[in-house]
What does this fold into?
Amino acid sequence: MTIVLVKPMFVSENPEYLVDPFPEMAESMSNDFEELLSAKGFTIRGPFKTRDEMVYTEKVNSSFILEIQIDLNPESSVELIEHTKTSVALMLLASEPFVSTYSTKGSIAFGGNLILTALSPQYGEKIWKKSIALDRVVFPYVGTVEYQTSPILAGQLVCDNGVYNTVAREIEKFYAYALDVVWKQIDPEEMKIIEKQAKEADRKSN
It folds into this structure.
């Protein structure tokens, strides 16, 4: 059986998904899914960015296409810690010669689903869909950078190595757990049924 693998992608335009370590997670998942499916005894073609990258011979010589969507829904609860400093410039211009900046601490949570979708290889008919629930995790963090206003989580990941390192460490643990869940959910016998359904769907669409 030959499964075409499409690179995992996030299901929404959440700003956190655009900055590391989230894109790094999706890239790692692409490689690890290939290894996981190979270990289950399947031949893997790809991974492709989209189904459209496949040429005709790749489509007709494949069993089905597997798409992977990631929905982690990251959220943060932020507490601002005010730091007041004397500003020489403000001393000359205002009666209140102080400027306030803010560091952050709080909690971050993510969890949700991995959504696996099987498509027929030639015509892309949707054959099968499985949503694998992933338990939500919540963990504390303490920022090290000071801001003029309250930052969003994506901004903290870009600017603050402390926040980035905390999230990266937690994602690494969460990712290992997610792959273990997926390993238990991929059943070779079920994949054989999907292969037959995919061939029948393409035959009817021809």
